[in-house]
Amino acid sequence: MRRALLIAGPTASGKSAVALRLAERFGMTIINADSMQVYADLRILTARPSASEEAQAPHRLFGEIDGGVNYSAGRWARRAREILAEIGERPVIFVGGTGLYFRALTEGLSAMPAVSVAVRDATRAKAEGRATAELHAELAAIDPDTAARLRPSDRQRTLRALEVIAATGRPLASFQGAREKPPLEPGGWGGFFLAPDRATLYQRIDARFDAMIAAGALDEVAALAKRRLDPALPVMRAHGVPPLIAHLEGRLALAEAAVRAKLDTRHYAKRQFTWARHQLKGFEWVAPEQAVEAGSRRLGA
């Protein structure tokens, strides 16, 4: 049985600080479970731990992936499994805000087919210049079950479903029965969801974005924009990236871009609460200020 602690929670809830304090106290490795903090391009805008924080305890899967990579939950789960094998029986902390990553750890993911680079590139080339709603309608005609589960504005997942059909001739929904074995065995982990007061959280989100801008987030986004990556890539949809690119292109004032980024992030935090309530089984909800004590109890101290 592995001594693993899983710390989930909405953005800006203080997860990283809690994980670092526990990692230092118990000699644990921190493994990232946030779909945006895996990317190297946006340390500031994704609130990735600083270099000095990373020096205080071993950190894995932070900033390891280039922004040009479409990094999926399946790839993350395989990498997490590899890291666990490397670490052996030493204790670990998984920390982040991506609920699907935690589901992958504890319940396993549906066994999805591999899609070749050639098929992926061809599908995206055909989709270039077409509205996401149009692509979603195309998917609905050939895979209505998957389309019904996706928002018409969700370009990335719509493209993924179209890629699977192009590669296999089968709808994505047909692959979602069988599950892979999860990296963490039942009973081998304890999970917490940090649940701050909503009003306080929203204030933290707004203040943190202002601090990110002051720390150089706009320069990060400018460097990312110069790469001219596919707008459907996850890194291009990170919270704050689209409005800040709009500002850099002269389409939005910086103040308006900040308002939109903050609102988008607050909406995301609300969805994180909803996901956790319905999807994160076995996670104990705790106030952030009580999380270090709760984690210490779970680790047997």
Main sheet strand line-up? 3-2-4-1-5-6
Specify the number of helices. 13
Summed up, the domain count is 2
Distance between the termini: 18 Å
Estimated helix fraction: 40-55%
Briefly note the structural class of the backbone. Answer: alpha/beta
Q: How many strand segments?
A: 6
* CATH topology label of the largest domain: Rossmann fold
Which regions contain 5 or more consecutive residues with pLDDT less than 50? none
Tell me what the CATH architecture of the largest domain is. Answer: 3-Layer(aba) Sandwich
Radius of gyration (CA) equals 19 Å
Taken in chain order, the helices and strands follow as: EHEHEHEHHHHHEHHHHEH
Largest sheet: 6 strands, parallel
Say which CATH homologous superfamily of the largest domain is assigned.
P-loop containing nucleotide triphosphate hydrolases
Structural notes for this entry:
The protein has 301 residues and is α/β, with parallel strands linked by helices. The protein folds into two domains: 4-109 and 180-298, P-loop containing nucleotide triphosphate hydrolases (Rossmann fold, 3-Layer(aba) Sandwich); 117-175, Histone, subunit A, CATH 1.10.20.140. The protein contains 13 helices and six strands. It has a six-stranded parallel sheet, with helices on both faces. It is globular, with a radius of gyration of 19 Å.
